[in-house]
Hints:
The chain is mainly α. It folds into 2 domains: 1-54, Arc Repressor Mutant, subunit A (Orthogonal Bundle); 56-202, Tetracycline Repressor, domain 2, CATH 1.10.357.10. It has helices at 12-28, 35-42, 56-81, 87-104, 106-112, 125-145, 154-173, 187-202. α5 (106-112) packs across α7 (154-173) and α6 (125-145) packs across α7. Residues 34-53 bind DNA. Pfam families: TetR_C_33, TetR_N.
Amino acid sequence: MADTQRSYHHGALKAALIDATLVLLKEGGIEAVSVREAAKRAGVSPGAPFRHFPSRTALLNAVAEEAMVRLTMQIDQALTQAASLSPLEQYRALGQAFLIWAFENPHHFQVISTRAVIDFEGSGLRASNDKIRRQMRQLLNDAVSSGELVGISAEDALLSTRALAYGLARMNIDGQLQSWDVESGNYLGLAQHLINEQIDRLKR
């Protein structure tokens, strides 16, 4: 058995285990993930991962942290490109960036949205999530101040749009969107359309 195990340079094993975990998520969801199985998929001994990941929670936390980095980058890039637009249009860009990330990285989203399997409070995940929420809240407050957002408070607009985007992303990974008759199976396009419709209604 030992002669079939792979050898990794420092730091490479951690990345290989995260990649193996993503494969397990794709094949069987969160229930399929274990440190031992990730080690097997990475081609190392069962004890090798524990230097990096002493528990299943630690392993899934690493996936969640990688997910948050990717999401933050996607949002920051979208906001940079939309910097010359009005606050509500910047908010639209942020929402679309979230949907693109969630639909293109469903297994990352699955982990980060399943709080029972990660240490959300005891890691950097809470701070990163709070940063995104502050960005959303600030844009909506600016939209209220400029008169672009009327008839609804910034907090109500934040909760309603966040709930729709999150719900659509969750329906996608749970296979519920697939039960709807969507042309060409373009579920991301459907989600983007629905978010656009909701934001358009906020402007009326």
